[in-house]
Amino acid sequence: MRFRTLRPYLIETFGRPVHRVALDAGSDCPNRDGTRGRGGCFYCDVEGSGTGALARGLELEEQLAAGLRRVARRDPGCGVIAYLQSYSNTYVSEDRLDEVLGVIERRIGDPVVCVAVATRPDTLPDRSLDRLAQLARRVPVWIELGLEAADDALLLAINRLHTVAEFEDAVRRCHERGLQTVGHAILGLPGDGREGARRTARALAAAGVAGVKVHHLMVLRRTQFAHAFRSGELEVLTSERYVDWLADFVERLAPEQVLHRLTGDSPRENLLAPHWDLHKNAIREHLETELTRRGTRQGSHHTVASQKSRR
User: Fold this and answer.
1) Which domain holds residue 69?
2) Residue 153 is assigned to a structural domain of this protein
3) What is the pLDDT of residues 271-289, one digit of tens each?
4) Residue 170: which of 196, 144, 151 has the closest Cα?
5) Which residues of the chain, if any, have pLDDT below 70?
6) Domain total of the chain
């Protein structure tokens, strides 16, 4: 393929198929509790783009055990990534982080072969990084950091309330401790446009994140963007335009970066727009077709000089 996807990387790294088990540790967000802001990012729903399992009374150990059983039935003998998904999972007390990681540590070995921790770049105190670095001596640890768009004015406008520099600093501090990083991006945010997609890809390449998750803007019902969409103030991408911009994005990543995700999804009852009649595998196929048509591939427009100048 003309871009580097996650499944072959996982098999190459762990010697077998590996699946995620999403976990909700009941974490909060400084963009909701008033530390940085209120109401959350305009695209984020009330469950922090996660499972909401803890809110339904499922303790973390129970969530993990149920997830391991589910994955084992579907793919016996596979490995598992324990994925702390909802909200900002380092935005907790030291004792709580120890408690959460302790639940996962008891399962490390087989089948848990990796731990992924989703958080914000402005909620990474040294004590949390040191604790995660301790865990990384036993198992690979991925720190998933939302950049979303490489534009400070846009990050402010969508109530994201951190800066590109904070993202870059967080990635650097993770790498200093031997932690792998995965950067998140959203294409189609209002005012970002096609050049915004290119700019964000260049920023992710320059930061040197090992992995990238990218998806189109989805308007979920219980979000600030839902009001703007209903009033006609917010446009969303067609699938054709998204693939076009996604090809631009992928061309500007570094060739070695692994694409963990190429599109997003949501339960239909939670999604206002867009409603594409496409499975996510079709997006992958359309991207391959578009890059073939252009005669390009991942990294075709990546410049090493630009990456070095930003470090």
Assistant:
1) 6-303
2) yes
3) 999 999 888 899 999 999 9
4) 144
5) 46-57, 305-311
6) 1
Q: Identify the helix (H) or strand (E) that includes residue 115.
A: strand 112-119
Rounded to the nearest angstrom, the gap between the alpha carbon of residue 8 and the centroid of all alpha carbons in its chain is 19
Count CB atoms within 10 A of the CB of residue 176. 10
For residue 1, tell me if it sits in a domain: no
Residue 225 in any domain: the answer is: yes
The pLDDT of residue 274: 97
Q: Is residue 310 in a domain?
A: no
Alpha-carbon distance of 273 to 102, in angstroms, equals 39
What does the pLDDT read at residue 203?
98
Query: What CATH number is given to the structural domain containing 22?
Result: 3.20.20.70
**Per-residue model confidence (pLDDT) at position 54:** 54
Q: Are 97 and 128 in contact (CB under 8 A)?
A: yes
- Please give the mean pLDDT across all residues of the chain: 93
Task: Centre a 10 Å sphere on the Cβ of residue 164 and count the other Cβ atoms it contains.
Answer: 19
Q: What is the 3-state secondary structure (H, E, C) of 148-187?
A: ECCCHHHHHHCCCCCCHHHHHHHHHHHHHCCCEEEEEEEE
Residue 56: predicted pLDDT: 52
